[in-house]
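Priority: medium. Attachment 1 of 2:
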């Protein structure tokens, strides 16, 4: 059973903006653009005040060592994988960052939640098995420490010439994998958007726990806000965005816009106005 007090730190009034900057664990250089100076990124995001910052063990001190009583909650990733590289690997793998006691570092760093992948790639059945085994170990550790577990069920399209495994937005596949994640014991789901945002309510309904929408590659901000508005209207409780925040020229303004969408029920246009009101 997860700790509701930790979840209260993650979800303000039941909603959450989690800014993900855990991309360094995937060993893909293109994801590191904008993250070169880790301390500066953390300082900027802490000042921008999202509900949470998602990172790995090796960078979490940059958030938790800041001496202020009010700051974003820590969401700590506990796994690593090689699925995001532009070249295709002969062997796909996913492993826990801490094999013996995978959740203890998150407890010691006072995280509000841990996050782990459930990866479904075409033809990569052993990778899927590895993810299930990882989740089983982490779920048991979460129960021991009363730590909330966020599962990230990702249905991926075949490896493309553009580089990497891309999102498969098929609603049937996403719903089935989200159901599987819930069966494995997810307290929170971090799910890809469905190709048709109007289908996303099906993801929310099958999850039976809070669903946060996963972002992706950087897009035009107004486009991102319009997609986000549509998904929130389908019942999502928030967003987990990374590159659309930290790779933007004005991450503070983007954070303000997303927080306005999530917590004030703003339209995309109103959120965009909030963004423009924040100087870069």
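Attachment 2 of 2:
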């Amino acid at each position: 059973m997860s700790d509701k007090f930790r979840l209260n730190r993650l979800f303000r009034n039941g909603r959450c903006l989690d800014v993900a900057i855990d991309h360094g664990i995937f060993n893909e250089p293109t994801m590191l653009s904008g993250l070169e100076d880790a301390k500066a990124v953390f300082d900027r995001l802490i000042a921008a005040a999202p509900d949470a910052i998602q990172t790995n063990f090796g960078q979490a001190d940059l958030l938790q060592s800041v001496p202020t009583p009010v700051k974003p909650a820590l969401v700590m990733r506990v796994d690593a994988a090689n699925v995001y590289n532009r070249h295709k690997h002969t062997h796909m793998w996913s492993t826990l960052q801490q094999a013996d006691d995978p959740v203890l570092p998150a407890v010691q760093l006072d995280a509000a939640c841990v996050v782990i992948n459930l990866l479904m790639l075409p033809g990569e059945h052993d990778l899927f098995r590895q993810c299930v085994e990882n989740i089983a170990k982490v779920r048991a550790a979460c129960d021991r420490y009363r730590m909330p577990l966020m599962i990230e069920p990702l249905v991926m399209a075949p490896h493309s010439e553009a580089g990497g495994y891309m999102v498969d937005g098929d609603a049937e596949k996403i719903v089935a994998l989200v159901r599987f994640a819930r069966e494995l014991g997810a307290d929170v789901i971090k799910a890809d958007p469905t190709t048709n945002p109007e289908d996303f309510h099906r993801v929310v309904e099958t999850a039976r726990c809070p669903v946060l929408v996963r972002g992706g590659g950087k897009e035009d901000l107004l486009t991102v806000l319009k997609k986000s508005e549509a998904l929130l209207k389908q019942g999502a409780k928030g967003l987990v965005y990374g590159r659309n925040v930290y790779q933007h020229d004005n991450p503070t303004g983007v954070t303000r816009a997303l927080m306005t969408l999530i917590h004030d029920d703003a339209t995309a246009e109103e959120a965009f106005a909030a963004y423009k009101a924040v100087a870069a």
